[in-house]
Amino acid sequence: MKMQSSAHYPDSVLLLFAREPVRGQVKTRLQGALGEEGTLRLHEDLIRHSARMVSQSGLCPWRFCVAGDPGHPLFLSLSDDLPPLRQTGGDLGERMALAVDQALRHSRHVILLGADCASVDAAALGQALAALHEGRNAVLGPAEDGGYVLLGLDDARWLDFTDMPWGTSAVLELTHQRLRQSGADWCELPPGWDVDRPADLSKLDRLQYWLGDAPPPALTPASHVASAPPLDSA
Fold this sequence. Notes:
By secondary structure, the chain is of the alpha/beta class. 29% of the residues lie in helices and 16% in strands.
């Protein structure tokens, strides 16, 4: 894997998880509010927003990890030095596990970020990377709906992705349990959100940089990131 020496953390890599933009097959829960064409445009805008944020942050090398065709023109037009990858495996957990395993063969740390998680900005990404480089084994960016918007790992063994109830509010708590059981030293970022349902659309108005130029990264010290709950708190 080619490393970008100009990146602040050249030995880490971010995988931006995204689905190939195909009309009628993306963000289906939004189609009642936006229609198929409007939903497709929003899906593409979310991909652009996240890709530009990551690229302009200059924090670490990154690449798309695509469910569908990684050669779609949108992914190729937004990519930096690393070409898009195709997700492999069955359910989301298996695809994440395989992506983590492959990335960590070449990089010291890996960050997984959903392209629809527009609330994650360069400051949050900088916090996650700083925590990993200061010795944390894992970093979670919890989602308001009970899942998570960002995951960072230094080793695949810290988190078992099998039999996760993806798409439910139980994902975050089960992830907490598995991290505790693994003995990982982990921490959490402040909660974020993704865009999946009509009620989420108004959240985009909160974003100062929605579809605009991302601000320079704020490399907040890892000490400002919330520590993991005590082992006996769950």
